[in-house]
Design goal:
It is a single chain. By secondary structure, the chain is of the alpha/beta class. Helix content is 61%, strand content 6%. It has a 6-stranded mixed β-sheet, with helices on both faces. A hairpin with a 2-residue loop joins strand 1 (59-60) and strand 2 (63-64). Helix 2 runs parallel beside helix 20 and helix 3 (38-52) crosses helix 4 (71-83). It starts with a helix and ends with a strand.
């Protein structure tokens, strides 16, 4: 019986891994508050779509917001319809996206290398990558874009063999474009051109490509055409502010970074397995055309994004697809002696994480109930005992998998208990909801989660912080002035002084802010104040 059970487990081990990961990612997924600013922004925009019934014109706290195409908002609203307007509904499809990514990268690896050992390692390396996990736990466009890039890569490889896959390839490109605009083209086109170059093939335009392009424009172009037809200024905004400025301007969206940004920070986001590559750098073999294609694609994408002036670590997320596919095939060629070294290193890495977590709890850097502190050591113990009679390769793979699952569980409880520390305003909103105040003034910081968690009027006072810069050029009416003051303009300061009344209001400001004198004068009307991490709340 045990033998039959073992055979069954071995036969379906990848499916069981997918199932285990999916269950753990869903566990208490809605237990911590929306984090500022990105996650709360996407969640609030989707909420406003449902409240207004307008799915064409995204708004953020009542003001038009055309930073991104709306597919992420649509997916989030679907989560709201199924699970309600809450954190779980906002994040549910991120777990679906991660599951789809794991299936696709497994199938892509099989397609490229026809080796289940390589494909198993690919899945585990992909899942254990902190940058990928972070994208699947925080509502932004990044997890969805990565899913569609993977779809495009996989279905293009299938399209090379069987033309019937042309539809799915172009649909994947379309969905990516409907998620984050032309950014989807960079990883996909780089991979395609590299593949064609090393395989000495020319670009050939066929009837399938003609119909594919038609499919592309029909499936994602309608929204762009609708908003541009209604307001031609949107086209200039897309091409200039959202594309050109992000490429050439250091000041765009406060995301200007030096050229070397990714070269320094990307390796740090690939621990622990990136050390495997460093330890065996002399063994790296690029004689295989497929490995060479993957490695060149990865570095080409990194160089392109390094040239762009605006940078965030999540921008290069799709490049990891090619690095992980390369790494998994490269590493499976190594002997058991190397895997023994990797596994001992892995034990040390997770022991260090356990010690760090205990120290953080003891010195109260993080708050967490005592039983949950033992999730990490328990995970390490299971991985050591459970893989005792197997190869060093399997020990490593399952140690990495089990401890990443344990880390995911631990982080879930840690974030739930430390919402202010992870930049969630949910505890502040919960307190504000107990007050009779009707208006919430927020000084020099945009706080979408306050709108998400309360039914009160949230009024933003912009005094220069980049989060408060609102693009009001698309507003046809002046209703937004009821909830937005641009204090960088003198006439707006006069309007604020004239309108402001402390009665039935609360005032929220970060500790580090130095309030101007005209606001300090008004603050004397508040009798109470309460501290929430980096925030101070004034109320009556």
């Amino acid at each position: 019986m045990n033998t039959k059970f073992s055979v069954l487990i071995a036969k379906h081990q990848v499916a069981l891994i997918f199932l285990s990961i999916f269950i753990v990612t869903l566990f208490h997924l809605g237990s911590w508050g929306l984090t500022e600013t990105s996650e709360a922004r996407y969640a609030q925009i989707a909420k406003e779509m449902i409240e207004t019934g307008d799915y064409i014109h995204p708004t953020k706290m009542g003001i038009s917001h055309y930073h991104k195409p709306p597919l992420t908002y649509y997916i989030t609203t679907l989560g709201y319809f199924i699970f309600g307007i809450n954190e779980f509904g906002a994040r549910f499809f991120l777990s679906i996206a991660l599951l789809v990514q794991l299936i696709l990268i497994y199938k892509t690896s099989l397609l490229l290398f026809n080796d289940r050992k390589t494909s198993l390692l690919t899945v585990v390396l992909y899942f254990s990558t902190p940058l990928i996990l972070a994208s699947a736990r925080n509502l932004t466009t990044d997890a969805y874009l990565n899913t569609f890039v993977l779809m495009a890569v996989y279905f293009w490889l299938r399209y090379l063999e069987e033309k019937k896959y042309f539809f799915l390839f172009y649909l994947a490109l379309s969905l990516g474009f409907f998620t984050k605009g032309p950014l989807v083209f960079i990883p996909v086109f780089v991979f395609q051109l590299t593949w064609l170059y090393y395989n000495k093939k020319r670009i050939r335009f066929s009837i399938y490509d003609f119909w594919g392009i038609i499919i592309f424009f029909i499936s994602c172009g309608w929204w762009y055409l609708a908003v541009i037809y209604e307001n031609p200024l949107v086209l200039k905004y897309f091409t200039s502010n959202q594309i050109y400025q992000r490429i050439v301007s250091n000041d765009a969206f406060n995301r200007g970074k030096p050229f070397w940004y990714y070269l320094l920070f990307l390796p740090l986001s690939l621990f622990p397995w990136v050390i495997y590559l460093f330890l065996t750098s002399r063994k790296i073999d690029t004689t295989s055309i497929k490995r060479k294609i993957l490695l060149v694609s990865f570095f080409s994408i990194i160089i392109i994004f390094s040239i762009f002036k605006t940078k965030l670590i999540f921008y290069v997320l799709p490049s990891l697809i090619f690095l992980i596919l390369f790494a998994s095939n490269q590493l499976t060629q190594l002997s058991e002696n190397y895997w023994k070294k990797f596994t001992l290193y892995l034990y040390g890495y997770f022991i260090l994480l356990i010690i760090t977590s205990f120290v953080a709890v003891v010195i109260h850097k993080i708050e967490i109930d005592l039983p949950y502190v033992f999730i990490l050591p328990f995970g390490l113990l299971i991985s050591i005992l459970g893989t005792k009679n197997t190869s060093w390769f399997n020990k490593n793979v399952y140690t990495l998998l089990i401890n990443t699952l344990a880390l995911l569980l631990f982080s879930t409880f840690a974030m739930k208990s430390n919402e202010l520390l992870i930049n969630s305003a949910k505890p502040i909103a919960a307190f504000v909801n107990t007050l009779e105040s009707k208006n919430v003034y927020v000084y020099n910081y945009l706080l979408p989660s306050m709108s998400f968690y309360t039914n009160k009027k949230v009024i933003t006072l912009n005094d220069g912080n980049y989060t408060c810069k609102r693009e009001v050029q698309f507003e046809k009416k002046l209703n937004y002035l009821k909830t937005y003051y641009n204090l960088e303009k003198k006439n707006e300061i006069i309007r604020f002084i004239s309108d402001f009344k402390a009665k039935n209001t609360v005032f929220l400001v970060r500790k580090k802010e130095v309030l101007p004198e005209y606001i300090k004068t008004e603050m004397t009307s508040y009798k109470n104040k309460k501290y929430f991490g980096k925030w101070i709340l004034y109320y009556n």
